[in-house]
Amino acid sequence: MVLIPEGEFTLGLNPKSKILQFMSEKTSALNAQPEQQYFLKAFYMDQFEVTYEEFMRFKPQAQYPVQQMNLPVSGISWYEADAYCHWLGKRLPMEYEWEKAARGSDNRLFVWGNDFEKGTANFGKQVQPVNALEGDVSTYRIWGLNGNVSEWTASWYKPYPNSIMQDNNFGEKFKVTRGGSINKREHGFLKQFTMLPYRNFSPPQMRYWDTGFRCAKYA
Prior knowledge:
Helix content is 14%, strand content 16%. The protein has four helices and nine strands. The termini are close together.
């Protein structure tokens, strides 16, 4: 695990930023506003996504249609991910922790900076091993946050502090998932969906083959 030090980081997006000129009004990530400085206490986060090899120690009866055990485990529900982390004395990361670990302390939109680079993270058709792409490594040396598989977080899908956005999906119905993943479209709003501040959400009981997880714990 990697220690993420306490301190403030930039949470969310400012849609009027010149950096975000490629964003359209329809995909302005309103649920990630307002941009703000947010303080977090120190915490630990797994350096890599949980693999099939690791998860099957927890659930040895599981059968998955994969040959490589060092691929990030996917197709599991939020409840399974949560149970695995607690089995190890850990927990799922809160979404703000996930964002700080990915964006670092300098408000970047991708782990490598502010300019989209298609080949730096895995947005292709096939999942890759958790340590495959050296470009998809955050300033805290955490791998695979920007692509490969999206990741479950501990957080319910709720508005940010001081947000004026209203969404019927807010509440304790959906869990937030973070990070880009495989099978993103080759055109259109690709950049929008792979930016680190982008928030997605899913029913916790669902299983998706583009969604995995990693664990965290308090420092």
